[in-house]
Fold these 4 entries.
Entry 1:
Amino acid sequence: MNKFMKWVEDKLVPPMAKIGNQRHLLAIRNGVVSTLSLILIGTFFMVFVNLPVPAWKAALAPYTEMIVMPYRVTLGLMAIYATFVMGSDLAKSYKLDGVTGGILSLGAFFMLQMPTNILTPKKAPMGYVLPMSSLGASGMFTGILSMIVAVEIYRFFQSHNITIKMPDQVPPAVARSFEALIPSAVIMTLFWLIRDVAKIDVNSLLLDLFHPLTNILGNNLLGALLPMFLIHILWSFGIHGMSIVGSVVRPIWLIMLDDNAKALASGTAATKLPYIAPEQFYQWTVTIGGAGATVVVAALFLIVCKSKFLKEVGRFSIVPGIFNINEPMIFGAPMMLNPYMFIPFNVVPLVLTTISYFAVKLGLVNGFTSLQAWTLPAPIGGYLSAGNDWRMIILILVNLAVATIIYFPFVKAYDKHMLDVEQNGDDTKDGATDAASANA
């Protein structure tokens, strides 16, 4: 075990830490996260019209399209919001103007969409519309590509001083517009040639490219296990696993959630949705109370441990854990770099993922169709996110029981060690617990 932990710490952690700080991945993460407040509101309306009460659905049927409009302009347009923020964030990381970076990225993104004239006969330009199917989660990959290309072109011209300089007396906003004129011309011309002249549907190409990966992550057990394995290995060594892995796979998770919601809205049964494992699958059934389902560890520390230190950690961790905030446990116990907790912290998510995967796959519970506030207690969040399915509450309680059983012997062993430290001052049994001893 010690050799394995040393290998991970020496070989795996350093490159993953660098990846976590990579500017393009940070921009993607920030762009996606920036849309969550809108998506939360939008998905509420989708849940509202899909309450599992036939009489309710029948009563709302004539008004369904009107009621779900906030959903269509939030999750349905999320690629627009995210592309602007991603471009702004990436430009700022290069110490360029953030607004210009966002605008250029958004312009490039729109140039890759193909407007359709819906009038008969065709009367340009009044009849042109943009299809919403490529402006939501399905357009995220196009937004990411547009953001990277646009900002990198902008940076090239700025770094080589190929810009139109205005006198100092010109207002800054006007000066920035002229400075971006040359890169804007290059970006818009390039993307016009790709989409309108060459007729290359970049959005469809990217979706086709990532479709196998989406199926692997969303409907394959090994694919569903992989994100949990990587996230928790990184957390075990003090690196925020979700910030790294989430930056890569969250756009794919959003596509899964969007497709599930569309399928539900079109009449697909909630137990027959296209994807098993969008992000909400993990959020509500696996990482209950935070990474590693550590809310059960806080409860065990309080109930079964005799160590004063562990009881205190349990006391200040249990309430945040109920609301899915587990940094007090991660850094207080600590869970990271702790040989007593390493095995259960990494095994529990894999076991819970497997149980939940088959529960959804076999139709024992609904699939996930909406995004809920991540601070909700898991039974409530899972119930709402799975279309108000009471069976999801039972699944979550079963998973909590399983996690408790797995953690129990390791918590007892850790408690025995910490008692030795407290009673005898013996902190030499395992150097990885020195941090915990110092806090005790």
Entry 2:
Amino acid sequence: MVMAELKGRLLSNEPLIKYTSWRVGGSADRLYLPFDKDDLCEFIKTLPENEPVFWMGLGSNLLVRDGGIRGTVINTKGRLKEMQLAEDGSVYVEAGVPCAHVARFCADNGLVDAEFLAGIPGTMGGALRMNAGAFGGETWRIVKSVEMLNAKGDVTQRDPKQFEVNYRSVKSVNNEWFLSVNLSLTPGDSATSIQKIKSLLDARSKTQPTNQPSCGSVFKNPEGDFAARLIEVTKLKGYRIGGACVSEKHANFIVNTGNATASDIENLIKYVKRKVQYMHGVELQTEVCMVGEEKA
């Protein structure tokens, strides 16, 4: 079989600090920046059978440890970027499109129920992987079908019924990754939808530290309660380890005040978990994905 010529960029020992919303993390052995979806599929076919592969979009909801990531990291931000109205009335979105862009596109085209995506600081690929949500909405409630890529470079269409979807958790077929999604939405009024997005974003800027490097919410909300409330009543707002600090604005956010390391952030996460469990008997579960190796 003759492989197509690759059009993307392959970088070696690439620092990931500039690819993550926390602005921390070590280097990737290899980082691939695909030209488009077809190019990515061809690249996957070139990898050794047991090559570790990690996907990254906007780098939010992600803590890359200071020792970096072994294997190959694929960055989809601004690369898997196609978004269009499909013939069946659904919205086709590739994995690298930021969720906020999806919300606005749907509103501009008179489709409602996707406004909540404006509050998710990640790409559609990341939102699919964790069933991201905001303002009472959840990603998989509007999924009609998804396009998956396996480790051999094969592409498959799958139905939502083939996934086990829960709160901030999605279990999928082993060794498959999200390439794109078709969203099923309801026709509605564009102006009303756009105004709703504006109101949601205004509320977000007033309650979240959107002007500081963070990953979004660090902990899942325990059933019947809010992680932010538990952290706040434990009097941990403003508590810091190194350059990592529990936000004064929203207790479920940890911000990089300028010189944090991934180790500072991870140690602060562990400290918050211990204190909340000691004070309230609640074991907080992390929403953020922590990957990579400790610095030697």
Entry 3:
Amino acid sequence: MANILVNSLKRLYAAGRVTKEQIAERAEKGTITEADYQEITGEEYGE
């Protein structure tokens, strides 16, 4: 299930519908992993 979420967030991020900060909030809450954050944004978490 998380993979579907990550793919959706990746698509939304690429389209500019969600921000890097919104993705980081999900990582902080534990909804996605730090590796997922990196996959979505192309940057390491916490940079």
Entry 4:
Amino acid sequence: MADYAVVEKQLEHETSDAKYFLDENYQDILENFDPNVVKLHKKRKIIMSDTVLDDLAKLSRDDESTE
């Protein structure tokens, strides 16, 4: 078992290190921020069978007939 003062001192040290790290990186982001940079998006491919549109048309006809 260690003295609580040692643990408290270590916690204080870690807290100050974390705050310093966050402040430093925040300043770096502010200095290097460029609003003209566009975020990259993953391209998505949609693969459909030939009869998909026929099925959608059939579904819409079924919906109209129930109304």
